[in-house]
Amino acid sequence: MGSLESNNLNGDIISSHTIGKVITCKAAVAYAAAQPLVVEEILVHPPQKMEVRIRVLFTSICHTDLSAWRGENEAHRVYPRIFGHEASGVVESVGEGVSDIEIGDHIVPIFNGECSECVYCKSKKSSNLCEKFRVNPMKSTMAGDGRCRFSTKDGRPIYHFLNTSTFSDYTVVDSACLVKIDPKASLQKMTLLSCGVSTGLGAVWNTADVEEGSTVAVFGLGAVGLAVVEGARTRGASRIIGVDVNSDKIIKGKAIGITDFINPNDLDKPVHDKIREMTDGGVDYSFECAGNLDVLREAFLSTHDGWGLTVVLGIHPTPRLLPLHPMELFDGRRIVASVFGDFKGKSQLPHFANQCIKGVVKLDEFITHEMPFSKINEAMQLLSDGKSLRCLLHL
């Protein structure tokens, strides 16, 4: 392969001198649940067949990263491990067989990949659950050979997370989990498309297909919930009700598009009764973004009988089952879950990115903080304290 040098946004050089070689770089490594991440030098090995090594320029922190760091799910307790799954960057090198991505391309990694060959990717039923690269918290190595591409300086393997592991200067990702984006797009903003914004907005556009004039209730106004609000706004929803126990969320919620706000702690009745009063029988669509089963029940009951649809987006670590009686579904209400907003990542996300470039979707409101990567533990605490939506870390 010939020599190639390409300036990226930070003025760094993507050079052919590193191709095929082990790279020493900084990464934030988790060694135990709920312990501070250790920012240290690690080794990142070259990409193998159908893999890509990327220079991460920006990464942000999602609640899934926070939950994994806390060890809330047994599947996440694999150490040492590099978390992170929202990022953007530039391709440093590609492995054998990769034809759709080249050195220097601007990319966004995605935790829910698309191989384009399996029965799910080829299905006309609009499934985005790839057989090989769907989200899998149990997976901690590369799909090709079951080995890690990260190691400590003394040779111990460092495990992967959600197909991406973006809390590192460099990471190796299966090509099925990378989306090539227009180089004119802001890489800072495109980071948000890796998870939160795509998940929330896609739930509105793809899963629910909300129509103009519809009424919507959003339970939980974190980044995913506010992305739902943004999606409902772009679809022309007539009423968007935000529900959250943190009344400070009303400010950001109204900036993005909520028309009404409810704090359940301020009510003397169930939330669903209040929403039914406000909307003449219930909303057309509700979105549960809190990961709480009691909230899910309120979201379901807040929809209008006959046609109401509830979309589940929250991650539910509890072993409890759905708090619904089967007969409650006979009144016409429906409930469905959405993974990654039902976007097929590689084939549909580039179009979504172009819509963001054109200003159809407002991304600026989601980035509440920016920090150098060395302050990643402070960024984790901001999210844990409910003080940030997305903290963008500069690598």
Describe the structure.
It is a single chain. The protein has helices at residues 63-70, 119-122, 187-190, 196-208, 223-234, 249-256, 271-278, 293-301, 345-357, 376-384, and strands spanning 5-7, 13-15, 23-29, 38-44, 51-60, 86-94, 106-109, 150-151, 157-158, 170-174, 178-180, 215-219, 239-243, 260-262, 285-288, 309-312, 334-337, 367-372, 390-394. The chain is an alpha/beta fold and 395 residues long. The strands form four sheets. Strands 5, 6, 7, 10, 11, 18 and 19 form a seven-stranded mixed sheet that branches. A six-stranded parallel sheet has the order 14-13-12-15-16-17, sandwiched between helices. A hairpin with a 5-residue loop joins strand 8 (150-151) and strand 9. Homodimer. One of its GO terms (molecular function) is S-(hydroxymethyl)glutathione dehydrogenase [NAD(P)+] activity. Its cofactor is Zn(2+).
Features:
six-stranded parallel beta sheet, disordered N terminus, alpha/beta, 395 residues, seven-stranded mixed beta sheet, 10 helices, 22% helix
